[in-house]
Amino acid sequence: MRPSGRQLNEMRSVSIETDVTKHAEGSCMIRMGDTHVLCTATIEDRVPPFIKGSGLGWVTAEYGMLPRSTSSRMRREAATGKQGGRTVEIQRLIGRSLRAGVDRVAMGERQITIDCDVIQADGGTRCASITGGWVALRLAVNKLMKAGDIVTDPLISPVAAVSCGIYAGQPVLDLDYPEDSEAGVDGNFILRADGQMIEVQMSAEGATFSRAQMNELLDLADKGIGELVEAQLKAVGA
């Protein structure tokens, strides 16, 4: 029934390759099916002015899509002189999602920036960015702890994200682009590994949905998050 031939509750193949760049304190290439995102983490001994002197750390994110990450070339946002609304919304989502898994007191007064660059897009780029972004963050924090710059691990729990939706009248897990573009209901679910929810984005794209259908999608998301967390922990050697 699904264009890919997957079962309703089946994820795309997931792989996470770490240490893919030379200079970043943490990096990975996450591949969820044909969606590929490069995630890098940069540590800086500074924080935004609004929290300076508070003793709290900060995690933020930037997101972008390469011109040929999609079927036709997109103009670079730098060429237009500003970021699009979608880009701003996604990078804010990535930042606040990752912060929900961080003890900012234990992190100390420093900033970690997660850069997410979409190399190839086939649906679910924001979910892949959050999931891969946590891996890059984990690797960067590991370096801080190894150097003795922080004593207590500030990462409370892995953070991962997955899309679910209603496609052809059926609830499905991990939408690829053909499904995402035709889904009657589309949702993104960001959770911690301990089961705590960070954010749920659901919208009727052509059909309304019931409470029961929402619960079905939440159950699918729980399954998908569990598989993603397993891949994250394997990637970082935990």
TrEMBL record:
UniProtKB keywords: Nucleotidyltransferase, RNA-binding, rRNA processing, Transferase, tRNA processing, tRNA-binding
InterPro entries linked to this entry: ExoRNase_PH_dom1 (IPR001247), ExoRNase_PH_dom2 (IPR015847), ExoRNase_PH_dom2_sf (IPR036345), PNPase/RNase_PH_dom_sf (IPR027408), Ribosomal_Su5_D2-typ_SF (IPR020568), RNase_PH (IPR050080), RNase_PH_bac-type (IPR002381), RNase_PH_CS (IPR018336)
Single GO molecular function: 3'-5'-RNA exonuclease activity
Enzyme class: transferase
PROSITE patterns cross-referenced by the UniProt entry: RIBONUCLEASE_PH
Source superkingdom: Bacteria
Keyword Oxidoreductase applies: no
Domain Exoribonuclease phosphorolytic: from-to ranges: 10-140, 158-223
Binding-site positions, phosphate: 86, 124-126
EC number: 2.7.7.56
Matching Gene3D superfamilies: GHMP Kinase, N-terminal domain
Gene Ontology biological process terms from the UniProt entry: rRNA 3'-end processing; rRNA catabolic process; tRNA processing
Transmembrane segments: none
Reactions catalysed, as given in the entry: tRNA(n+1) + phosphate = tRNA(n) + a ribonucleoside 5'-diphosphate
Keyword flag Metal-binding: no
Subunit-structure text: Homohexameric ring arranged as a trimer of dimers.
Family: Belongs to the RNase PH family.
Role of this protein: Phosphorolytic 3'-5' exoribonuclease that plays an important role in tRNA 3'-end maturation. Removes nucleotide residues following the 3'-CCA terminus of tRNAs; can also add nucleotides to the ends of RNA molecules by using nucleoside diphosphates as substrates, but this may not be physiologically important. Probably plays a role in initiation of 16S rRNA degradation (leading to ribosome degradation) during starvation.
Name used for this protein in its record: Ribonuclease PH
Annotated source species: Thalassococcus halodurans
Gene name in the database record: rph
